[in-house]
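Dear support,

I submitted the protein below through the web form. The confirmation email said the job was done, but the results page showed an empty box. After a refresh the structure appeared. I'm attaching both so you can tell me whether what I see now is the final result or a partial one.
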Amino acid sequence: MKSGLMFVKLVNPCSGEGAIYLFNVCLPQLFEIKVFKEKNHSWFINESVQSGGLLHFATPMDPLFLLLHYLIKADREGKFQPLEQVVMDDMFPNCILLLKLPELEKLLRHVTEEKEIDKKKYYKYSKEKTLKWLEKKVNQTMAALKTNNVNVGARVRSTAFFSGDPVSSDKEEDYICYAHGLISDYIPKELSDDLSKYLKLPEPPASVPNPPSKLYLLTGYFVVAAQRQKRDK
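What the results page shows now:
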């Protein structure tokens, strides 16, 4: 804790289960932990070879995804509530750290309606605002995918994907569907379905593979973190 960094267990906003995050108390800032794992990989450390090959990424995460989990849950009561009454969790008590994040009120305006009574603010989840905010997230993700020449076409198989070669024939629809899938890893399925309808996305065919797990979001840019190394050797 001398560094101000602490590992905390918070809710995964997609599954509702627990997940480990990194919290910088000094900034403060939230990071998600991504683990890259491949078989038959080792590390050279000084004069020794260590098996395992695990690689952990700590990447900045928009805390609003976690706050959404609690706002949607609190919306069942159908009333405006103070934020400290919304962000409460007996299973994940460290959720109160989210209340220490800077510009929290500014973030909440993207997904809530608010009222002020006796100089105290009350919040209520807004589905309409949330979908508009998520649409912006999808557009930002699409831009990052294009900037990094990430192949997203449904026709792509693992060999072509990991070659790292840009494929100019990718359609705009491919990008938006893929970006929607990535953003869906941070929101409940019901909200993901609502976002799909909001974006007027087509129903995906059963044969379309899920986005590869070796794609990581690092400070806003998508990086292929796996087999591309083999090509560069």
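Response: this is the final, complete result; the empty box was a page-load delay. The chain has two domains: 5-42+51-125, 128-232.
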